[in-house]
Amino acid sequence: MISPVILFTLPVAFTVVEARWINSYIQRTVYDIWSNNEWKPNALVLNYPSKACSMMKLNRGEAFAKVFKQDASGGCLIPRGTYYVANQDPRMALFPKMPYGKYRCLFTNGLPWRKGCMACAYVEMDLIPK
């Protein structure tokens, strides 16, 4: 099992269109693994039913400060705007080590009282030895 240690080289831009992103948001990330020629669902599920912003800051402190250009030790308020992610170390403080293999990840983020997700991402990735 490994912890990823390479940098993300694909630049990503995302825009926060709500007035702000605060701790009332929920977040759910589901990883499926490819095994025996089929996807095995729910290999890893990260569910934050509240305080998604604080959990992101806790897991990604330095990267959070770099992307959102604010002190990671302060409050959790992300103003409207466009943010860019490139050449980031993918390691997270509270993330379990995962075995080599092919994964797909569905990331959803939203408010508990709203239907549907406000921010969603679907990613397929390969974890390979260095």
TrEMBL record:
Residues 1-19 form the signal peptide. The keyword Signal applies. Keywords: Signal. This is Uncharacterized protein LOC127750490 isoform X2. It comes from Frankliniella occidentalis.
